[in-house]
Amino acid sequence: MARRHMGSIYSYLQRMAPLSMRVEAYGCPDGLNAVNENSNSLFLTIGPGDFLVHHAIALGLHTTTLILVKGALDARGSKLMPDKKDFGYSFPCDGPGRGGTCDISAWDAFYLAVFWMLNTIGWVTFYWHWKHITLWQGNVSQFNESSTYLMGWLRDYLWLNSSQLINGYNPFGMNSLSVWAWMFLFGHLVWATGFMFLISWRGYWQELIETLAWAHERTPLANLIRWRDKPVALSIVQARLVGLAHFSVGYIFTYAAFLIASTSGKFG
């Protein structure tokens, strides 16, 4: 009983103790200094750029959620759904003349939501990285001044911090960032290839394949070799999946190389 009474007295004294003593007691040395100083990232003063980014992140989160909820609960709510059902799963996507039902399925909602998810992740990582690079360099004013317009992000964050990465491998030799320079280029290649699948729809590729097959069958000697089956282009669903995979993987590789090289290039 006495031990319990002493414990309650101790907890009361802990609550009544000054904040600095309680912070130290709970194993957080220099905790108050971390709150009050401007050279760390625990509590930072925010400005117009932070305000814009916070709202952009909120937009991305809400839009991603809305698309997923719509796709999960009401993907079949479109009046075009009967046309899609009649055309089958590999539905056409070439406008009203061929159904016009390319963006009303749960798969399309997921596909679109992944792009918005990547957008949101990009805004978060760009913001955190640039803010901390300027903080660690003691030049927070650069972020505060340049983060309020798009060209500031391109010039003072992406382009300025890419210089060391791009020079990791050049005609004069290479340095420790060369592997990240190659990864940066490889990521761009993978990312850009995705647009070949995302933008050029089935009709384009199918027409190209049929043109090549027609020319092959009418070319002497070459027409001795024939296909048993007619070549068929990827369906819309397949092409979107391949394009989405390229876009996502390329984005991750590109930004990871930039993130590592730009940070280590400045701070070792």
TrEMBL record:
Its main location: membrane. Pfam families: PsaA_PsaB. The chain crosses the membrane at residues 109-130, 179-199, 241-261. The keyword Iron applies. Keywords: 4Fe-4S, Chlorophyll, Chromophore, Electron transport, Iron, Iron-sulfur, Magnesium, Membrane, Metal-binding, Oxidoreductase, Photosynthesis, Photosystem I, Transmembrane, Transmembrane helix, Transport. InterPro entries: PSI_PsaA/B, PSI_PsaA/B_CS, PSI_PsaA/B_sf. Its EC number is 1.97.1.12. GO terms for cellular component: chloroplast thylakoid membrane; photosystem I. It is found in: Membrane. PANTHER family: OUTER MEMBRANE PROTEIN, OMPA-RELATED (PTHR30128), PHOTOSYSTEM I P700 CHLOROPHYLL A APOPROTEIN A1-RELATED (PTHR30128:SF19). Belongs to the PsaA/PsaB family. The PsaA/B heterodimer binds the P700 chlorophyll special pair and subsequent electron acceptors. PSI consists of a core antenna complex that captures photons, and an electron transfer chain that converts photonic excitation into a charge separation. The eukaryotic PSI reaction center is composed of at least 11 subunits. PsaA and PsaB bind P700, the primary electron donor of photosystem I (PSI), as well as the electron acceptors A0, A1 and FX. PSI is a plastocyanin-ferredoxin oxidoreductase, converting photonic excitation into a charge separation, which transfers an electron from the donor P700 chlorophyll pair to the spectroscopically characterized acceptors A0, A1, FX, FA and FB in turn. Oxidized P700 is reduced on the lumenal side of the thylakoid membrane by plastocyanin. This is photosystem I. The lineage of its organism: Eukaryota, Viridiplantae, Streptophyta, Embryophyta, Tracheophyta.
